[in-house]
Amino acid sequence: MYMQLSLFDTNAEYLETKVSDITEANTGFRVHASLIYKLGESLIADDITALSELIKNTYDADATMCMVNINTDYLETIDGKECKGLIEIIDNGCGMGLSTIVNGWLTISNSPKKKMKKENRTTEKYHRYPLGDKGLGRLSVQKLGRYMQMTTKTKDSNEEYSLTIPWGDFLTNTTIDQIPVKLRSNVVNNNVSYTKILIKDLINADAWKKQEQISAIENSLSRIVSPFKSKDNNFKVLAKIDGQEIEDVQSIFDELLKASRAKYIIKFSKGVAEIQSLYKKDFFLNRENLKEVLALNFNFTETAIADFMKAYAYKLENLAFVPISNYLFESNTENIIQDIAASEANAFDPGDFEVEIYEYSFDQGYLDYFYQEMHLANFVDKDEFRDFVDRYHGIKVVRDGFIVRGFGEGEEGDWLGLSSSSKTTGSFFDFRNDSVIGCVKLTGLLNYKLKETTNREGFVDDEYFRSFKDIIKSSIRTINKQRKRLNDSMRQYIVESVSNIKIEDAPTDYFSSLNKIQTDLSSQSYLPQKISQYKSTLSDSYKKVSSIESVDASVKQEIENIVVATNELTDTFGFLLDERNRLEKQIEAVKFEFGKIAQRIQDLFELAGLGISVEFFAHEFDSAIKNIRSKNAEILKTSSIPQVNDLIKHIRYVDYSLNVLRKQVSYFNPGLKFVRAEKQDFSMIEFLDSHRSFYQERCEKKNIIFHVISSQDFSVRINRGMLNQVFDNLFNNSEYWLDFSASKGLIQEKHYNIEMFSSGVVVVWDNGIGISKDIEARLFEPFETKKENGRGLGLYIALSNLKYNSASMHLLQERNEFGNLFKFEVDLSQIKI
Question: Taking Cα atoms as reference points, which of 325, 334, 329 lies closest to residue 486?
């Protein structure tokens, strides 16, 4: 990014010492000052590495805060030279005393951290294992500027030290001992500790100043300190460039992790990797499954998920349903690393570590649904979402909160070969490096055998590193197998779930198709204006070229031919445009007519549904009238004059019977024509209580125990009469098959159950024989029935009415004791209010 000084600058000339100055007493090695720059160029890769090393020093000093301030407009005259640009690095760490300054900063390749690591000691306050130990981090300053001033103080001393090092002088023609390093002390009466480094005369101040570089610098800082936070994290970096704060992306990064489709955790210890996989429902939203969700044929409700778990338990080992979290599934497995022999694993154990991997999808249909359903418009827009994932993608390696460079970044950062593996294995479901954000969490204390290279660009490629890499790759292979098995099972479950609820040629499907065609046509409306602009530009260009005498005549002729051809194409396009406009008008007319037909069909569905419900009610109505007439006949046949008490009792019976009939008739009012189109808001608990009350007498007569199970209420917006028809049909079907099952001696008691969930789902089932296997795949098709004298229209009409109201119903895949499907899920989540 920046221009760097090097050993080969013109100032680094050959130094010739006068032989006359040499005596027996002072003979010895002398080091040219430019060697410092040679070391820096070899060991500090670039300016980001340099800044990283200085920030790591503040971490090693037990600081909780490191402030970086870059001022590109700063000017100061130092030793008669105008110096531009300033970088301040300030921390609240333990500071340095005179001994540390002399033995540390002023002694190249000497560091007290080496002794700490050798003795396996950590820092006093926060018990941090030192990140550095080579005594070379101070050479980072030369990558950034030519002049440094450091002020530092320890907590238990009143002595503040100031150290000035003219790094630019190390390229002059002299030896190291001749560089004028200045150390001063000052008495300060406070009990705080700190270190402040000022780097002046920046190597290339203008590169920091450009506005377009701000985002690059923001990204660079995030490449130094990991945005993955651990519970023990207590270190923060704040940065400014020319007074503008570098954006703290931590909150966005945290939201980004929450927006993942799945999360995987690998915990390695002593040859065994414990793998925890957490899946959200959108993990399963590939193009095929999403199509069924958008068509309201399927929804990932808690009942559907629980049903899936029961139906595919034999395929889903170690998988648990977790309805109380953001994740639907949780899987825990143990992966004993097979790729490494047991003896080798023990011999080259890299130490305990943990990996987090978050998975994403960039399919356009998925993103559209994701943003609409998950309400993430206030997070970042779709394009920014992709940019953020692209910014952080890959699996990084982090040691004590600092990113080890060379892992997970850029095209060469796929150090685990995720993308190449997905291509070579041919598995579409394998991880790809550009669609995951991950972090391998190391600590200096536990993973000290993994040694970083001298230039901080990775790890030494030894047996410990290769063992470390193989452990992660083996664990990821286990995860990929599990992901594919789970995805395949869910895809099969959805196919089986929706196979019996496809209503072919549904009016709404045709209407959607017409709307799509019209939208596609309208989306091209900008073309005439564009073509007109291009045609005008081409014509102007031709006139200009024609007026230039030096242009060859053949060239002018070719351009003229292009203009003529363009005019012909424009005329042809104009004809096509007229045709498009004509088609658009015809489609509008068809839509108008089709809308009327669709409404009539819907009215027919509603009336048919109402008719079926009334048909069942008519039988009860007729029985009630017969009972009243029978009671009247008994009174009239009595030879003696009835007593007043008997007459009052009879009148009360008739009054009660009429009230029951009136209540039952009122049950159908919402389905009458003058209220059928209206939608009402109502509580589902109140609705189901009313539904149970309506059938109470029938249930008592037939010994049917009617259960309504509800943990939490929710409200919906739909036509009440239409919903009545759905639940009437389900009850009447159950009533028939409960009677059948009891008559065959299959059951002793008859139970009818309705369970509602706060998510907007209602599950209905009974303890009868269930759905016959030979009809389960066609259950919702018209004229399919196993009932004697049945029409086979009830479920077809009920499902049509639900879909018309953005609701749905399907048969769960759980089987009862008779081996049959028996549970219906009514999904009202889309109309829940």
Answer: 329
CA 827 – CA 762 distance, rounded (Å): 6
- Distance between CA atoms of 610 and 676, rounded to whole angstroms? 10
Q: Which residues pair with 437 in a beta bridge?
A: 358, 394
Question: Under DSSP, is residue 54 helix (H, G, I), strand (E, B) or coil?
Answer: helix
- Helix/strand/coil for 285: coil
120 contacts: CB under 8 Å, gap ≥ 6: 445
Sign of the torsion angle spanned by Cα atoms 203, 209, 210, 216: positive
Using an 8 Å Cβ cutoff, are 170 and 36 in contact?
A: yes
**Residue 429 identity (one-letter amino acid):** F
CA 353 from centre of chain: 24
Please give the Cα distance from 565 to 575 (Å, whole number): 16
8 A C-beta contact, residue 400 and residue 452 = no
Q: Which long-range contacts (CB under 8 A, 24 or more apart) does 28-33 make?
A: 30/175, 30/177, 31/175, 31/176, 32/174, 32/175, 32/176, 33/169, 33/170, 33/171, 33/172, 33/174, 33/175, 33/176, 33/178, 33/179
Q: Is 331 helix (H, G, I), strand (E, B) or coil?
A: strand
Q: What is the pTM of this model?
A: 0.64
The rounded distance, in Å, linking the Cα atoms of 358 and 825 is: 32
Q: Of all residues in the chain, what percent carry a pLDDT higher than 70?
A: 70
CA distance 693 to 754: 13
Distance, in Å, from the CA atom of 772 to the CA atom of 819, rounded to the nearest integer, reads 9
Residues 6+ apart with CB under 8 A from 483: 262, 277, 429
**DSSP for 627-688, written as a single string:** HHHHHHHHHHH-SSPPPHHHHHHHHHHHHHHHHHHHHHHHTTGGGSHHHHT--EEEEHHHHH
DSSP bridge partners of 764: 754, 824
Q: How far apart are CA 669 and CA 646, in angstroms?
A: 35
Residue 828 gets which letter from DSSP?
A: -
Confidence tier at 257 by pLDDT (50, 70, 90): confident
Identify residue 407 by its one-letter amino acid code. F
| β-sheet bridge partners, residue 331 | 277, 319
Would you say how long the chain is, in residues?
Answer: 833
Tokens of 534: 């291009």
Alpha-carbon span 627 to 734, nearest angstrom:
26
Q: Cα(208)–Cα(397) distance, rounded to whole angstroms?
A: 27
Mean predicted lDDT score pLDDT of the chain: 78
- What average pLDDT does this structure show over 779-797? 79
Q: What 3-state DSSP class applies to 690?
A: helix
Distances 381 to 372, 387, 431, 621 between C-alpha atoms, Å:
11, 10, 24, 59
Q: Say if residue 409 is exposed, middle or buried (CB neighbours under 10 Å; 0-12, 13-18, 19+).
A: middle
pLDDT tens digits, 639-696? 556 666 666 766 766 665 666 556 555 555 554 444 445 788 999 999 999 899 888 8
Q: How far is CA 762 from the centre of its chain?
A: 28
> What does the DSSP assignment read for 593-633?
HHHHHHHHHHHHHHHHHHHHHHHHHHHHHHHHHHHHHHHHH
The Cβ of residue 501 has, within 10 Å, a number of other Cβ atoms equal to 22
Give the Cα separation of 181 and 185 in Å (integer): 14
Which three-class secondary structure state does DSSP give residue 816?
coil
Strand 394-399 versus strand 353-359 pairing type = unpaired
* Angstrom distance (rounded) from CA 330 to CA 740: 41
